[in-house]
């Protein structure tokens, strides 16, 4: 035993193995590389957040002014001569007669009374440009609502033109040369006079939420586009949800596991990554060219978006169904339930929170899509509000696209304001999905 101990070589002294200088250098280099990688990841994340913040701040800074409007208070004389015989007519005939009254003359007379020095035709034309074309409709609606106003002089807050509106919002500087701005020095002097008299009013732009599209920026609203989006998403939900959930149930619970079902699963996963404009081309080829459905209708838009949303709903539904423990199925079958009863009485209710979450996320994606709707003609200029899925309509993302492409400067703030509304809708839908998951999801 002593001889064996004597043959054992004692450990060498000095840096060997993990303690050697070469190994320590490699360890330091590894830690340094890891630290650089973490810093790069953190830098990329901070860059993305900073870019997002800049984008949101820019949109909100530009768009908040779109929720305000400028009005000019004028004293409008509704003389009997301008409305001769109108008051004696019945309601239907009176409304028809009131449509033929020249309200521009009433506005011009009021402005000339405020600025009696304006004589030349060119100056009168420039003075009339301070008031929006929609002011005539406002006067007519006021008289239709209260015919007793005929023969009186009333004070009305009339909608200002888009140039006046953006001037008072600080988007046009009076310091730049007159040749470089759309408003003249004379018009600015008139506006200063009206402002000094307290006739310039800034208020919340309710018409932005209660009117449809218009060629005039100050009159344009999102109600028509919002209704078009609602009808389109309604059609999408009614088609994509039952088909998507039924497909997920079949593939997950009843379909045999063979190469055909594998091929179907692969195609569903691939369809989820197909660009949305491809679905627009598919809708154009099938629904418009083959079935001759009406162009720019919410029905066609809903069918097209349903094709795009189906893969997302199927994948999310399958994941939710797969997350239900097998013991639930075994217990139900052990108590005598049929496979159909097991699925619809036990598996489906337990997986419904995940299914609803995936559906809402898919609908939120459909809400923000523009390219498929452009391909099926929902890019048309439509003023009237849609009342059904067969009426011509546009959608909120398409409306944003149209306004962003418009040369009028007044549409810039309208575009940002509509984007804010769309972002709010998307946040609400995603928040609803998170709330449903947290409220109804069970941990097994």
Summarize the structure.
By secondary structure, the protein is mainly alpha-helical.
Shape: extended
CATH superfamily of the largest domain: MetI-like
The level 1 CATH classification of the largest domain is Mainly Alpha
> Class by helix and strand content?
mainly alpha
- Helix content percent band: 55-70%
Report low-confidence residues grouped into runs of 5 or more. Answer: none
**Secondary-structure element order, N to C:** HHEHHHHEHHEHHHHHHHHHH
Largest sheet strand order: 2-1-3
Gyration radius over CA: 34 Å
CATH topology of the largest domain: MetI-like fold
- The CATH architecture term of the largest domain is Orthogonal Bundle
The tally of helices reads 18
How is the main sheet built? 3 strands, antiparallel
Instruction: Count the E strands.
Output: 3
Question: What does the model show?
Answer:
Helix 2 crosses helix 18 (410-440) and helix 13 (298-322) crosses helix 15. The chain has a three-stranded antiparallel sheet with strand order 2-1-3. With 444 residues, it is mainly α. Helices cover 63% and strands 5% of the residues. It has 18 helices and three strands. It has helices spanning 2-7, 21-63, 91-98, 103-114, 121-128, 134-145, 162-168, 185-196, 207-210, 223-254, 259-271, 276-288, 298-322, 326-334, 339-367, 371-375, 396-404, 410-440, and strands at 68-77, 153-159, 200-204. The protein has two domains: 72-205, no CATH class; 223-440, MetI-like fold (Orthogonal Bundle), CATH 1.10.3720.10. The protein is extended. The longest helix has 43 residues, at 21-63. The protein starts with a helix and ends with a helix.
């Amino acid at each position: 035993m002593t001889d064996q101990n004597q043959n054992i070589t004692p450990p060498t002294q000095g840096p060997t193995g993990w303690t050697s200088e070469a190994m320590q250098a490699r360890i330091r280099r590894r830690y340094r590389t890891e630290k650089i990688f973490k810093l790069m990841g953190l830098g990329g994340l901070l860059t993305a957040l900073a870019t997002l913040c800049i984008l949101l701040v820019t949109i909100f800074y530009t768009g908040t002014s779109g929720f305000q409007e400028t009005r000019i208070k004028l004293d409008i004389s509704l003389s009997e001569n301008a409305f001769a015989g109108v008051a004696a007519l019945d309601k239907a005939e009176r409304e028809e007669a009131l449509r033929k009254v020249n309200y521009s003359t009433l506005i011009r007379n009021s402005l000339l009374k405020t600025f009696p020095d304006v004589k030349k035709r060119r100056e009168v034309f420039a003075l009339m440009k301070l008031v929006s074309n929609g002011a005539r409709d406002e006067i007519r609606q006021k008289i239709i609502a209260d015919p007793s106003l005929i023969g009186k002089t009333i004070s009305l807050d009339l909608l200002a033109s888009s140039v006046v509106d953006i001037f008072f919002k600080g988007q046009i500087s009076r310091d730049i040369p007159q040749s470089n701005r759309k408003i003249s020095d004379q018009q600015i002097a008139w506006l200063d006079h009206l402002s000094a008299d307290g006739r310039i009013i800034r208020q919340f732009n309710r018409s932005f939420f209660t009117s449809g599209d218009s060629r005039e920026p100050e009159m344009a609203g999102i109600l028509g586009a919002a209704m078009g989006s609602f009808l389109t998403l309604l059609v999408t939900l009614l088609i994509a949800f039952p088909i998507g959930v039924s497909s997920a149930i079949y593939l997950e619970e009843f379909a045999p596991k063979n190469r055909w079902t594998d091929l179907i699963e692969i195609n569903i996963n691939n369809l989820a990554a197909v660009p949305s404009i491809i679905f627009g081309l598919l809708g154009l080829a099938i629904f418009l060219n083959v079935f001759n459905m009406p162009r720019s209708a919410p029905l066609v838009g809903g069918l097209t978006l349903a094709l795009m949303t189906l893969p997302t709903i199927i994948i999310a539904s399958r994941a939710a169904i797969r997350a239900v423990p097998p013991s639930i199925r075994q217990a139900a079958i052990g108590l005598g339930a049929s496979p159909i009863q097991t699925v619809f009485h036990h598996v489906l209710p337990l997986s419904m929170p995940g299914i609803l979450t995936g559906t809402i996320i898919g609908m939120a994606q459909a809400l923000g899509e523009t390219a498929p709707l452009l391909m099926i003609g929902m890019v048309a200029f439509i003023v009237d509000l849609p009342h059904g899925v067969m009426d011509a309509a546009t959608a909120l993302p398409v409306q944003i696209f149209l306004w962003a492409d418009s040369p009028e400067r007044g549409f810039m703030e309208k575009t940002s304001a509509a984007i804010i509304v769309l972002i709010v809708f998307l946040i609400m839908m995603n928040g609803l999905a998170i709330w449903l998951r947290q409220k109804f999801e069970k941990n097994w």
